[in-house]
Amino acid sequence: MQNNTDPTPPDAVPSSVATELSQLDDESLRAVLDYGQTLLNTRIEAGPNEEIVSIEDHGTHTTVIKCEDCADGCDECPHGPYLYHVRSEEHINGEENFHWVYIGEVVDECTS
């Protein structure tokens, strides 16, 4: 149900989507937010020489555990697993990317 206090949607949100969202009840709107976060999480990808072990959404951030290989010939590869907090950021120019914060090494070992 739309009212006079509804915020103005960002330009990137199609008007049909904004209209549909404004008509949802609280429970459905929260489900849409969860689904949107899940979609964003599916866009987190491993970089070169990395393997993502797990991705878990926590609302304000996503935890990602990954293992990493370094240079060829390293007898200790893969390294990790390492825990990161990841969140999507929109920059002033409108571009979005993921901000990765290293938390530390996880107890389990990576396997090659």
TrEMBL record:
<feature type="region of interest" description="Disordered">
    <location>
        <begin position="1"/>
        <end position="23"/>
    </location>
</feature>
<protein>
    <recommendedName>
        <fullName>C2H2-type domain-containing protein</fullName>
    </recommendedName>
</protein>
<keyword id="KW-0614">Plasmid</keyword>
